[in-house]
Amino acid sequence: MPTTLRSQAILKNSGLRSVATVCGLFLSLVLSAAPRATEQAPLHLDDLFASPSLFGTVPSPPKWAPDSQRFAFTWNDKGLPDRELWLASADGKELRRLSSPQFALYSSTREFAWRSNSKNILMLRGNELWQLDIDDSKARRLGDLGPGASNLGLAPDDQKVAFLKDGNLWIFDLQTNSSSAITDIGIPGLSALSIGRYNRPEREIGPGIWGGPTYVWSPDSRTIAVHLVDRRQMRKVPFPDYLSSETAPNEIRRGYPGDANESRTVGLIDVAEGKLQLLPLQNTSANQVVGFSWSSKGVLLLDVASDTAEDRWLYTVDAQQRLKEVWHKQRKSRIYTSFASQWHPNGEDIIFLSDLEDRYGLYMIDALAETQSPRLLSNPEADVLSAPIMAGAGSIFYTANAPNASESQVFVIRPSQATAQRVTPLSGHSSGYPSPDASHVAFVHSNDTQPAEIYSVSTMGTKLHRVTHSPLEAFSEREWARSRYLSFPSGIDDYQLHARILEPATLDPEKKYPVLFGPMYSNTVRNRWGGVYNRVQQLLVQKGYIIVQVDMRGSTGYGRDFREEFLVDFAGDDIEDIVSTVEYLKTVPYMDTERMGIWGSSYGGTLSIYTLLKKPGLFRAGVAAAAAVDPHFFGTDDVAIVRRPDTHPEVFLNMAARYAANLEDHLLIIHGMQDQVVPFKTTATLADLLIKEGKDFDFAFAPGATHSWSRETHYSRYLFGKLVAHFDRYLMP
């Protein structure tokens, strides 16, 4: 938050506040705003996508040297897409680019890993594996790993590097500089296109469709635990490719709610013999492997959860590969699997993230105990947002939304302290990476007006240093939208709702401003820079809009009940939360609630289109991008929200088509034809029905765009142009 607003303490997570009180504070802040800034050149849509980027290149998460003296990350200080490796001292005061003359003809750095001596770094540049000496910048090409190599992982004994390619696990021997596949299970995917969320091999060592582990070395470097995924039993679904010489069916493996999911299991590979032994996990097409890790004593920890999110298990696997259930918890009302786990350095205790109480917290259990009673470690008033990271002699680092839901800060629990201590001092969104000795934390930080940067802070004091300066100089010369955080009561129950408002820095309280809700989604009332969406918000504010985002039920940061109200109720009471927000905004004189629009993508697109259809007249215009409009075509992983047709058939009657006759506002539908998450077919079917109903609406599609259409620059520029023009047409005077 800007300093002038931070001192006002606008956002409160507890206690009701009357509309009159909030409105009075709201207006007092407006009237005390700074004088108008000098005239600046208008921001254009093309400025959002220019190269070099006005907003800079986001630095990668930092990785520490084993000796804790330095950390490295990939970045481009000129705002260009090509990435080089950069090295910073532990305190962040020294920074230099790691390069070598030999790199002139090769691609930018894709991945890297520190060697155990803390002097050499292994780098994957294009398909080439290099070793760079950080003292003299001498580089040595070690070998060609081939197309598609990824996920570098150095063995603890520093002799071998593992990597993934073609669905298999490979080993590169650093003594002989040669590589070979250690598994033979990879089967290529069906799709002829190398795009889309579901474009994965038929069988592979790798993550699930929606994430998960890949592999991890044992402490003695003799065994590798691997995540094996088999999709051959899933249904084949065509996603036609209209850009090929002839229309191609382009089949992929994709399930629908009620289908068996991909099979996910865990195997152990003897590195010397290359033998793979699968562990006897049950219901592998209905349960996901959240993660796994080795203890210092060589015992494997498995973290498993059901796709419905109702069940959670922790298992250990001993040297004889015997599986033991350590802990199990079931709750029928759970909707998310925000889980993680890690061994304590003592090799006996397990630290895990779970939702046993009102907030997500970190808990500890003894893996050897006969009965388990998890002990809460973190603050019960805040939600833990990250996996625990162990450093030093048992220090536990994690990220939590404290002091309020809009913030994300790094905390540490030291062995000698009973309570967690905040490490990161800056208001906003911070993701932390502690040094191995726990003396420093390098963290990536952003806020409402500042794109992501790397900072370093001492864990024993207040020594903070900014490491990167990413945006171009012209960025700091502009005056960006100012943010406000507001709380007000729900109109349908006793919950307190929370909103984030972006306004022109030179707002005139005597004027009436059109209002845009969006992008809509859960967990948007956050003090952070949100990539291209945030850039578009800034453009819209400059054009004269006020931007509103609200955390509907289902969002994290307000307790378990509020989060789980979303279960089997998409486009239900979450829309009522939008209605409550509109009612509050009607009390703010300079917000023109007769000229309001709403937009979002994915679930945000669902909210936008269902709101227009179920609450006609609430908004004058809306843009629904990649909107899920038919639950029958949700993914198998969406059962955590809607469950299955055989258990909750009423949820699957909630199709947008039921409300098509209600459309009376100005709707623009945006969809990529290669969207494998929300099939284009579903939107096309709804559009056909709207046409039959005689409704006037607009449709912008992109033939090669996926569900992540905003990440593909040419489609993003085109479709955001349609979005801005749509709102200008119907909401501007």
UniProtKB/TrEMBL annotation:
The record, for Gene3D superfamilies, names: alpha/beta hydrolase (3.40.50.1820), Dipeptidylpeptidase IV, N-terminal domain (2.140.10.30)
| Leader sequence residues | none
Q: Which residues form the Peptidase S9 prolyl oligopeptidase catalytic domain?
A: 536-731
InterPro entries with a match to the protein in the record: AB_hydrolase_fold (IPR029058), Peptidase_S9_cat (IPR001375), Peptidase_S9B_N (IPR002469), Serine_Prot_S9B/DPPIV (IPR050278)
Domain annotation Dipeptidylpeptidase IV N-terminal: ranges = 128-450
Cite the Pfam families for this sequence: DPPIV_N, Peptidase_S9
SUPFAM superfamilies listed in its UniProt record: alpha/beta-Hydrolases, DPP6 N-terminal domain-like
Q: What's the protein here called?
A: Prolyl oligopeptidase family serine peptidase
Q: Give the species this sequence originates from.
A: Congregibacter variabilis
